[in-house]
Amino acid sequence: MKFERFFISSGEADAQLEIVAAKPQREGPYPTIIFNHGSTGRGHNKSLFSRTMCPAVIANYFVERGWAILFPQRRGRGKSGGNYGEGLALDGSGYSCNVDIAIAGFERAVEDVDAVVRHLRGRPDVDQSRLAIAGVSRGGILAIAYAGMRPNTFKGAINFNGGWLGRGCASHEIVNPSIFERGASAGIPTLWLHGSYDQYYRIEHCRENFERFLLAGGQGTFIAASAGHALMFKPALWTNRVDQYIAALSKE
Fold first, then answer.
1. Cα(231)–Cα(241) distance, rounded to whole angstroms?
2. Reported confidence tier of residue 33, pLDDT bands at 50, 70, 90
3. Phi/psi at 156 (nearest 5 deg)?
4. Contacts for 62 with CB less than 8 Å, ≥ 6 apart
5. pTM score, two decimals?
6. Three-class DSSP category at 76
7. For residue 31, which of 132, 119, 152, 160 has the smallest C-alpha distance?
8. Strands 16-22, 68-73: pairing kind
9. At CA 108, angle to CA 95 and CA 89, rounded to 5?
10. C-beta separation of 237 from 244 below 8 A
11. CATH number at residue 22
12. How confident is the model at residue 220 (pLDDT cuts 50, 70, 90)?
């Protein structure tokens, strides 16, 4: 499998987004999934901002099953231009626990996914009838919420260990369910994969987020696996579940 790297417009002047992509060897168009990266832990180590995130374990999984995959790096992350503005405290101490700052950071991330979707709409090698979105940690909650905020765009959404603020912020009990609720109007089945001993998000909190999502009208399946926040890197714990999920998407 070969990765391709290119840049697209973010919609902000002088701020292009780095995209790392992979696709099957056969001719397209391909069912295509956008996979969104997470945060940088506490947000205080700026050297982590410039790391391009494109986990091979996820790319291999989807490409082997005939899917193309895109790993967008949001503004200020990887080699993307612009400032990293996803809820950092003004004093440089890391991610802010302030609800308004956290939500504004999420909404900035939504703008970047909008740019990626615009790019996909113009690609002849993409099967426009079979688009999906996924992500890990902040990218996981972003995937679920975005699918509801932009209905009729995706056939499915997959969340690995999703949440916007971790348990280090008391406000995570407000921010995370309120963001997840935005995904409830998507009208599509979703898949939530959480580690039962995640150091950032208690499994009870994750279940409560899912219940709020369902009560708001969302559809989905919740899986608690025997893992921590690195569940994504343990495909033996999720391959069968995701196989079933994407097979069902292909039939619809």
1. 13
2. very high
3. -155, 165
4. 22, 33, 68, 69
5. 0.97
6. coil
7. 132
8. antiparallel
9. 20
10. no
11. 3.40.50.1820
12. very high
Does the pLDDT at position 158 exceed 90? yes
Residue whose pair of structure tokens reads 């999502």 in the numeric block: 213
Give the residue carrying structure tokens 């308004």: 100
Total domains in the chain come to: 1
**How far apart are the C-alpha atoms of 176 and 91, rounded to whole Å?**
23
Alpha helices in 28-169 (DSSP H): 56-64, 99-121, 138-149
Q: Which of 228, 222, 229 is nearest to 207 (CA)?
A: 222
Q: What's the domain range around 48?
A: 4-251
Q: How confident is the model at residue 252 (pLDDT cuts 50, 70, 90)?
A: low
- DSSP calls for 22-50: E--SS-S-EEEEEEE----TTS--GGGTT
- Whether pLDDT at 44 is above 80: no
Q: How many CB atoms lie within 10 A of CB 189?
A: 16
User: Which ranges of the chain would DSSP assign to H, the alpha helix?
Assistant: 56-64, 99-121, 138-149, 172-181, 203-215, 239-251
Distance CA 122, CA 74 (A): 20
